[in-house]
Amino acid sequence: MSVEHHQSPELLGDAAAPARTGSDELVIRVDKLHCAGSGVCVSVAQQDLAFGPDGRAMALHATTTASEELFEAVEMCPTEAIRVHRAATGELVAPLE
Questions:
Q1: φ and ψ at 85, to 5 degrees?
Q2: If pLDDT is split at 50, 70 and 90, which confidence band does 7 have?
Q3: pTM of the predicted structure, to 2 decimals
Q4: Which of 74, 76, 77 is nearest to 92 (CA)?
Q5: DSSP structural state of residue 62
Q6: Residue 53, by phi and psi: left (phi above 0), alpha (psi -120 to 50) or beta?
Q7: Is the pLDDT assigned to residue 74 strictly greater than 60?
Q8: Letter string b/e over residues 33-67, b meaning 16 or more CB atoms within 10 A of that residue's CB
Q9: Degrees to nearest 5, angle at CA 69 with 63 and 74
Q10: Angle subtended at Cα 53 by Cα 65 and Cα 91, rounded to the nearest 5 degrees
Q11: pLDDT tens figures, 17-32
């Protein structure tokens, strides 16, 4: 079972501003069946990942933005349990296979 979070596009505060498409927003998915709970990802990307009640990694937010720490955490996951997708399109951003 994997954890998925979705975001709906938001409007910017200025009524004349264009609608935000969410193209810069990312969704983190953690495959709970593959996560070993090693904590490598949590220690690297503390702003995006934490331990859940089951001792496995979980996303802290419904969406996030790209960061070096997030991509490093994905690459360092010993079981390859973390995937990052574009919120607007579902396109896989990391890991690149």
A1: -125, 155
A2: very low
A3: 0.74
A4: 74
A5: S
A6: alpha
A7: yes
A8: eebebeebbbebbeebbeeeeeebbbbeeebbeee
A9: 75
A10: 30
A11: 223 344 689 999 999 9
How far is the C-alpha of 78 from the C-alpha of 22, rounded, in Å? 30
Query: What phi, psi does 68 have (nearest 5°)?
Result: -60, -40
Dihedral angle of Cα 41, 44, 45, 51, to the nearest 10 degrees: 50
From CA 97, how far away is CA 85, in angstroms rounded? 13
Please name the residue that has the structure tokens 């937010």: 61
47/38 Cα distance (integer angstroms): 17
* Mean model confidence pLDDT for the chain: 81
Block residue for tokens 């596009």:
9
Give the residue with greater pLDDT, 4 vs 56. Answer: 56
